[in-house]
Amino acid sequence: MKITVTTEKPESGLLVATLTVDKKDVDAAIAKTYKDIARRYAFQGFRRGRAPRPVIDGIVGREAVLGDATNTLMSEAEPLMIEQLDVVPIGNVDYGEDPALVSEKSDYTIEARITVRPDVELDSYDAPGINMPPEEATEAEIDRQVELLRSYRTTFEDVEEDRGAQEDDMVLCDVENISNLREYEGENRMFALNNERLHKEFVDGLLGMKKDEEKEISWNVEAERDGEKHEATFAAKVTVKAIRQAVTPEITEENVKDDYGFETIDELREAVKEEIEEDKKTSLPQLKEDRVVEAIGEHLTLEEVPAAYTEQVFNEIANQFLTQLQSQNLSLDMYLQSRGLSADDFVSDLHEQAAERARQSLALDALAEHLQIEVSQDDVRAEFERAGVPDVDAAMKEFLGEGRMPAVRESIRRTKVVEWLVDNAEVTVVDEIAEQAEADDEATD
């Protein structure tokens, strides 16, 4: 198909292009439409596929035929236009409410309005500085991992002394629902008071209660719905039957072999050290990429990312996640139940991820333009080869015919930018686990 595309520099994320399709391709699309209609329908007095144009015009309607031909033509021309412009549209291309129909022996010209990512700037195009953990395992990291191993042997034992429930306790209760707390109702319900998924007000009510104590826990929540304020009351009658505290045994030279399979504590710590350093060989490169991308995103001068672009990124993240679940033979409901998440919380989290990724993507695009990063045909082929497609040439042809190749080039450009950031970022090695432990100690003093 022969097309010509003229356009001007996009403004405010909108690209206006004039697309012209050669009259030979227009005539071919019209002829194909007549043939398809003749084969698709039975016209009285004619064998299927043999009905002449005047008969089809009289029954189907000339305008309907040209409408189908226009759609056929544009389905082939639009990907070529997208490829020629080398843009990744946000949403569908807009041809107006009532686009003109094709006509025989004439070029077809139409105006296309394409929403694209906005042109943005950074307040600095230098590779940012980032903090990174050391490649070797630190004592603080080993301590944390050993503490995690200890936690696996934690048990909960009844509190003997007459004290109230504390924030790290497990509380066994009988709960009688009064209003809107049916999910907590029942006998011998066990609640971990450090469980963030519990209502804070419910946990606050349990804190300080003693064994055999009974009381009503209630609170009100005000919310706005349909422009009106509504108040909901949450209430339950609670009887504490037992309070259990976490007991984690220390690691000693006497129990290290029986409990952990090592002759000495030093051998345990050495094994933990080796495991941490082996994990860092794969985790640190990805962490460095994540941090340089996060850092460059902070240099974006755009105050608010367009909602349409954020929504596009949201859809991409959601589709990737659902595809990953499908590959694991998991449904979304199964995943949510296993994580104790509500659908609303899950969607809200995806929206936050999308907003952050949208900013970072725009920042990478701005840096790619500043660095004048190019993508060659060899780069594109190598990308398809890395994807492991069985027929690279067929896959590239398919992407080209569907107008998806600009998205591939965009992804490659961003990858090259990330590689540049990783190579040029100024790295400060910080024992972050030790710093966090020190901050936690100060917070508890």
Report Rg. 32 Å
Strand segment count = 10
**CATH class designation of the largest domain:** Mainly Alpha
Secondary structure tally, helices: 14
Q: Roughly how much helix do the residues carry, as a percent range?
A: 40-55%
Class by alpha and beta content: alpha+beta
> How many independent structural domains?
3
Low-confidence stretches: none
How would you sum up the major sheet?
Answer: 5 strands, antiparallel
Would you write up a description of this structure?
- It is a single chain.
- By secondary structure, the chain is α+β, with helices and mostly antiparallel strands.
- It folds into three domains: 3-115, 2-Layer Sandwich (Alpha-Beta Plaits); 155-247, Chitinase A, domain 3 (Roll), CATH 3.10.50; 263-444, Trigger factor, domain 2.
- 49% of the residues lie in helices and 18% in strands.
- It is built from 14 helices and ten strands.
- The chain has helices spanning 23-40, 53-59, 62-85, 139-151, 200-206, 256-260, 265-297, 307-327, 332-339, 343-370, 377-387, 392-401, 405-424, 432-444; strands at residues 3-7, 14-21, 108-115, 129-132, 155-158, 170-179, 186-192, 214-225, 228-247, 426-429.
- Strands 5, 6, 7, 8 and 9 form a five-stranded antiparallel sheet that branches. A three-stranded antiparallel sheet has the order 1-2-3.
- A hairpin with a 6-residue loop joins strand 6 (170-179) and strand 7.
- Helix 8 (307-327) crosses helix 10 (343-370).
- It is elongated, with a radius of gyration of 32 Å.
- It starts with a strand and ends with a helix.
- The mean pLDDT is 93.
